[in-house]
Amino acid sequence: MHIRGDHAEVVVGGRLDVRSAADARAVLHSAVDDGVGDLVLDLSELDSWDATGLGVIMGAHRRAGRCGRRLVLRGVPPQMQRLLVATRLHRILAIEGGIGVESLPRV
């Protein structure tokens, strides 16, 4: 996994899984705590995530809300969009441009 950015935008690439969760959590919490306004989480370089990685994103979402901020997902890959729809998290998370549920391929 690679992660870069600041308190306004963070880009995550590679795999967001149990092995990289602690590092990703630390960076996201720091970005949330140090900024104001929306925090954009760009996932366009992300290859995959597991349940732990999704938990990191949800934790950052909750932390942002407690800090008066909003976590906004950008560039969510199609396979991850399907997971967000299946878990109904697309209704909770702010996703730039939204998810066209009808345009997603059926699994």
* Strand arrangement across the biggest beta sheet: 1-2-3-4-5
Overall number of domains: 1
If you consult CATH, what is the topology?
Answer: Transcription Regulator spoIIAA
- Enumerate how many helices there are, as a single number: 3
List low-pLDDT spans: none
Structural class: alpha/beta
Any idea of the CATH class? Alpha Beta
Radius of gyration over all CA atoms, rounded: 13 Å
The CATH homologous superfamily is called: STAS domain
- Give the H and E element order: EEHEHEHE
End-to-end CA span: 26 Å
Mean pLDDT: 90
Protein name: Anti-sigma factor antagonist
InterPro entries: Anti-sigma_ant, MlaB-like_STAS, STAS_dom, STAS_dom_sf
Pfam families: STAS_2
Family: Belongs to the anti-sigma-factor antagonist family.
Structure described in brief:
This protein has 107 residues and is α/β, with parallel strands linked by helices.
Explain this structure:
- This protein has 107 residues and is of the alpha/beta class.
- The chain has a single domain (2-95), classed as STAS domain (Transcription Regulator spoIIAA, 2-Layer Sandwich).
- It has helices at residues 21-34, 51-66, 78-86; strands at residues 2-5, 9-16, 39-49, 71-74, 94-95.
- Strands 1-2-3-4-5 form a 5-stranded mixed sheet, with helices on one face.
- Strand 2, helix 1 and strand 3 (39-49) form a beta-alpha-beta unit.
- The longest helix has 16 residues, at 51-66.
- It starts with a strand and ends in a 12-residue tail after the last strand.
- Belongs to the anti-sigma-factor antagonist family.
Give a topology summary.
Layout: E1 2-5, E2 9-16, H1 21-34, E3 39-49, H2 51-66, E4 71-74, H3 78-86, E5 94-95
Parallel strand pairs: 2-3, 3-4, 4-5
Antiparallel strand pairs: 1-2
Helix pairs in contact: 1-2
